[in-house]
Specification:
The protein has two domains: 131 residues, Rossmann fold, CATH 3.40.50; 194 residues, 3-Layer(aba) Sandwich (Rossmann fold). Helix content is 45%, strand content 15%. The strands form two sheets. A six-stranded parallel β-sheet has the order 8-7-6-9-10-11, sandwiched between helices. Strand 10, helix 11 and strand 11 form a beta-alpha-beta unit. Helix 6 runs parallel beside helix 14 and helix 15 crosses helix 16. The chain starts with 14 loop residues before the first helix and ends in a 5-residue tail after the last helix. 55% of the residues are buried.
Length: 374
């Protein structure tokens, strides 16, 4: 898998400041099991809408502070993602510190599962970078609060399929808002789309784009990921680097790998009219969204368009139906259009409009729900 950990939104700051930042969260749990080598952090941002759901990221963070920054930012994003998607779920996330290729064992995953179980259902886990459906089957041997399991165990399987589909739906909505005079069926035909990161989600997104008639350019740090996409779609072009792709003529930029993809420098160079991708936490720092708006770039907020994976694993609660989950993910098109319209009406960046919609739902419903106790 080529998707990498998002860039923490609070890099290079003292751990005490990170802990202060975490006070907006309902609960942050540090989990250690010396026997298995487990070192993990589980962050529950909000249960105002229901139990918190979010994946487990297994990554070799350079420090505990970096891991904490990532899990705090990611769990907050999950709250907003679930709220905008209309789910009765809160936001949570977990990170396991270590190299999954070296440190992932049955003992470690089962120890992690026991910590998840100890939270009594306030946090429900699933897959993320460095973890897979097969890993969730192991975690589920110790906890009943697990989604994203393999199809053999009644789960939804690979959530990247509907994550990519949701991003494509959001991208199409953004394209129609920019090129409104085009036939909706052909709005992406001939448009140049740069996809940065073609691991699981990016790879599926490329297929949707090619099928829609787009001219696709890709980058990835893993040669095998590029080779796999080119084998499937020989017409796809490969850029020398993400930096070179961003500076080249693009109609749409789809960051699907690193978080923090939209820095001041990137926004200053970007030629694309639209940014819409699967990566989490794309805005490198607060204020970037205003710079994006000032340059006339339409930004489809990441947690809005990449909610398909969350919708997919959440569907397991009802007995998984791929078609039902796909239809629910298709609503991301309507949600994206509504947010773009709200941004115009309110005169604010699209990221602000999305936050307002999410916060309004959490506030209104949260008054009725309070803190989730299981």
């Amino acid at each position: 898998m080529s998707e990498r950990s998002s860039t923490p939104t609070l890099p290079d700051v003292p751990a005490t400041d990170l802990l202060e930042h975490g006070l907006e969260h309902e609960q942050v749990v540090f989990a250690t099991d010396p026997a298995s080598g487990l070192r993990a952090i589980i962050a529950i941002h909000s249960t105002a809408l229901g139990p918190s759901l979010g994946g487990t990221r297994f990554h070799p963070y350079p420090s505990t502070a970096a891991a904490l920054a990532d899990v705090l930012a990611l769990s907050r994003g999950m709250s907003y993602k679930a709220a905008v998607a209309g789910l009765d779920l809160g936001g949570g996330k977990a990170v396991i510190i270590g190299d999954p290729a070296k440190h992932k064992t049955e003992a470690l995953l089962r120890a992690y599962g026991r910590f998840v179980e100890s939270l009594g259902g306030r946090y429900i886990t699933a897959c993320d970078v460095g973890t897979f459906s097969e890993d969730m089957d192991v975690v589920a041997r110790e906890s009943s609060h697990v989604t994203g399991r393999t199809e053999a165990h009644g789960g939804a399987g690979d959530s990247s399929v509907l994550t990519a589909y949701g991003v494509f739906c959001g991208l199409r909505a953004a394209a129609e808002s920019v090129w409104g005079d085009a036939d909706p069926a052909d709005v992406l035909t001939g448009r140049t789309v740069g996809v940065a990161g073609v691991g699981k989600v990016g790879r599926h997104l490329v297929t949707h784009l090619v099928d829609a008639g787009a001219d696709v350019v890709i980058t990835d740090v893993t040669p095998a990921a590029i080779d796999r996409v080119r084998d499937e779609h020989p017409g796809v072009r490969v850029a020398e680097s993400t930096e070179a792709m961003v500076a080249a003529p693009l109609d749409i930029y789809a960051p699907c790998a690193l978080g923090g993809a939209l820095t001041d420098a990137v926004v200053g160079e970007l030629t694309a009219r639209i940014v819409c991708g699967a990566a989490n936490n794309q805005l490198a720092h607060p204020g970037v969204e205003k710079l994006v708006e000032d340059r006339g770039i339409v930004y489809a907020p990441d947690y809005v368009v990449n909610a398909g994976g969350l919708i997919q694993v959440a569907d397991e609660f009802e007995g998984f139906s791929f078609e039902r989950a796909r239809l629910r993910s298709a609503r991301i098109y309507d949600t994206t259009r509504a947010i773009l319209e709200r941004a115009k009406t309110d005169g604010v960046p699209t990221a602000t409009a999305a936050d307002r919609i999410a916060e309004q739902r959490m506030l209104e419903v949260g008054r009725l729900r309070g803190i989730w106790l299981g």
